[in-house]
Amino acid sequence: MTEHPGPLPDPHLSDDDIIIGGGRVPGADPPKPATLWSDTVGWAATRSAQILLMAAVFAGTVWLLVKVSVVVIAALVALILAAAVYPVVRWLKSKGWTSLLATAAAFIGILALLGGIITGIVFAVRNEWDSLSSSAVEGWRELENFFRASPLPFDTAAINNAIQQVTEVATSGAFVGSALTGITAATEFIAGVVLMIVILFFFLKDGPKMWNFALRWFHGETRARLAESGDRTIQILGGYVRGTAIIAAVDAVFIGLALALLGVPLALPLAVIVFVGAFLPIIGATIAGILAALVALVTNGLVVALIVIAVVVVVNQMEGDLLQPVVMGRTLSLHAIVVLLALSVGTIVGGIFGAILAVPLTAVAWSVIQVWTDTYQVGHDPVLGEDPVNPKDWVAAKSTMAERWKYQQMRYQERLSRTLHIARGGETAAKEGKAGRKAQPRAEE
User: Fold this and answer.
1) Where are the domains of the chain?
2) What does residue 25 show for φ and ψ, rounded to 5 degrees?
3) Which positions ≥6 away from 147 have C-beta within 8 Å?
4) Given 101, 136, 220, 280, which residue has the most CB atoms within 10 angstroms?
């Protein structure tokens, strides 16, 4: 009797693999040797090193930006102004204006508007600044005497020390030093202004082309996210500037009229301060209201000062509940604590300019984070062309912000259509299943 030889060894079968029903099933992998970084402590150390490295890179980037603050501030101001004015350029182009002519008209218009506003602020406040500051100081002294005479526990020494510290910081030190970093010298200031004007012109003229040129070197989901990030950045910056200017003008008009009707002197410079303070959310309105109340206390008495405070509170409440939702919509969907933290960090890093730019840049950062945590379609881009874009294809260079907005709407529509299709498919399958279950007993009969 001949013995049948056993199955030939499988060269692809390891010692840990087993055969079940003629199929190979991988066995357990051999345990890996323990290393210094394989346990929990090693994992935590690795992650800590990565976090420290990222923090060092971030700190180095901030340090570099502070060192070239003239260029950074000029570019940011130009970008914000371009985002606010570009709808005018687009509207003029739709009316048949050439690109150069529309850009020149919007460019000259925004420079004239800014020049007029700055000139008006200087002339309105400069001649009355001494009276305004002395009235504010005298008003604070009267308020201090009132509380000192009252039975309420009021520590005037602590408040005076706090005010003195704030005054020292605001007049000589980190605040003014950081606010005027890079532009204390006249030459650097002029260079920064000229650089901002030049960058603004080219942003208005070729901004969409520049951005589309950068997008051509990306493809797939990355390009979709970058395109959406750029669109949202322009929408937020432009909407913030336009909305804040409208809200500031409304606040200044209402509070200025109230001060004039109440007979409070220096109503015009106080209204101007209200307008400027509106560009510092929360803090600016509070400071302007306190200043107006102190002046009214000195010149018109306690009753008028309380009325001024009531007017400021009502106007600010109207701004928060009515104007901001209507004018800005969801442009600045940030919590108040986030705004305060952004203002604090911006003031520490960039002084006055940092405080002004902190809130819109924080809103942009949050919007971009939302973009990069959302789901996007990949593949063919209906605006920028095939994916990846051939450098010889000029469709990408010719697409505009408005066209990418259509792309954005198409992307959302595509996602909505898929969702509805899946939902309807599920309903259809459920109905077919019910119909099949009803027909089955009849067939059996």
Assistant:
1) 68-372
2) -115, 120
3) 154, 156
4) 280
